[in-house]
Amino acid sequence: MDYFEYRNGELWAEGVRVKELAERFGTPLYVYSKKTLERHYKAFDNALGELDHLTCFSVKANSNVSLLRLLGERGAGVDIVSGGELYRALKAGIDPRRIVFSGVGKQEHEIREALKADILMFNVESAQELKQIGRIAAELNTTARISIRINPDVDPKTHPYISTGLKQNKFGLDMLEATGAYLLAKETPSVEPVGMDCHIGSQLTQIGPFVEALKKLLAFADRLQGSGVDIRYLDLGGGLGITYNEEAPPLPAELGQAIADTISGRKLTVILEPGRAIAGNAGILATRVLYTKKTSAKNFVIVDAAMNDLVRPSLYGAYHRIGEVNPKGREKIVVDVVGPICESSDFLAQDRRLPAMEPGEYLAVFSAGAYGFTMSSQYNSRPRAAEVIVDGSRVTLARQRETYADLIALEI
Ligand code: LLP
Fold it and tell me: What is the Cα–Cα distance from 373 to 282, expressed in whole angstroms?
């Protein structure tokens, strides 16, 4: 449920007309709804109810500092995968003891920065990484809290590019290798093994794969206890899907209940790393129609947003609902919504039923709050879009539109 809705014949973001935002800030424009973000964060945080838990928003989904601050103020931690994300999280005032660091390729300087910040833990993905963390921690005279990311070999039944928990994926360690890693961690004085981690994929629409992975992790944690490794944190990653089109993913509460039932009585702090489920439907991308064009094969609506602003349709063939900002009740035709970039893969929608649009009208691309701006680029030397956060009738510019000067600012 989100706070983008049609009232009095036009699209509103909470208490503000989207057309007004588009006119004031220009397009393409990312518009986020604060109430929606809060609602989704709370849904997750409440989902685990009585269980000791921490909700770590996955920064890669949306890394805008204002948005991170807003979540941090509500008690959220974050899941980071780079030094850049750590930098953003700290700038946003996120409590370092609520930061977990995931990713297969943590670099030496990133590990150092995270240790200095005293983050909650590193989700370690290989024996070499573990040794590297141990070495740097010793050098800094500190102890690194770690969990090992387990690859539970579970099919998450999602797009192959965003499946991560299958044995052919690059992520995590299988249980045999993980046992070795835990024993190594236990023997390394600068490393403290405190947790176990997994993340099986993204845009999951069923509970089954989560529970299957959780059961495997719990059985493994029980076996490890015999070797003197005491797991206190269980990080189940992110991955809960959202409705882009007709998907009907489980609610956070249903996921929470399934986790609580499966954990039954064990003394563990559960960590979840939702990204999409918090931010996805809390954002839209507003865009202006530049031209329309009818060829012998297709109707094209050419808009000012492109694959550099929102790459998901081009990259994954992802569906994003598109609607008029000011519907006029016109008959629908079948169109491709495309951007100005010089590639045939530059589309936001293909063969979509939309009214015959006129130049100058605005469209809203829905469910663009996660993996929208964060995956954007300057391809074709297009300055990146602006981002605004709406809170009731208040609007805050969360990121200025880039300028031409920004495009070449770092070039010598
Ligand atoms: N934790 C880890 C370790 C992850 O790798 C990810 C996402 C998450 C949490 C958050 O997953 P979420 O709750 O958002 O599903 N660019 C793709 C999604 C890639 C997801 C990568 N990892 C897309 O646009 O669909």
Answer: 13
Say how many Å lie between the CA of residue 16 and the centre of ligand 1.
30
For a ligand 1 pocket test, name from 40, 55, 57, 60 the mutation site with the most ligand atoms within 8 angstroms of its C-beta.
Answer: 60
For residue 371 and ligand 1, the question of a CB distance below 6 A is answered with yes
Q: What is the reported pLDDT for 264?
A: 85
CATH architecture of 34-276: Alpha-Beta Barrel (3.20)
392: left (phi over 0), alpha (psi -120 to 50) or beta: left
- Specify the pLDDT at position 164: 76
pLDDT under 70: residue ranges of the chain: none
Pick the CATH number of 4-32+280-408 from 1.10.1760.20, 3.90.226.10, 1.20.140.20, 2.40.37.10: 2.40.37.10
Which atom number of ligand 1 is nearest to the Cα of residue 279?
14
Ligand 1: which of 273, 367, 374 to mutate, most ligand atoms within 8 Å of CB? 273
Instruction: Check residue 137 and give its pLDDT.
Output: 98
3-class secondary-structure state, position 184: helix
Report the SS3 class of residue 353.
strand
Residue whose structure tokens are 């109430």: 35
Q: How many CB atoms lie within 10 A of CB 140?
A: 14
The pLDDT score that the predictor gives to residue 157 is: 79
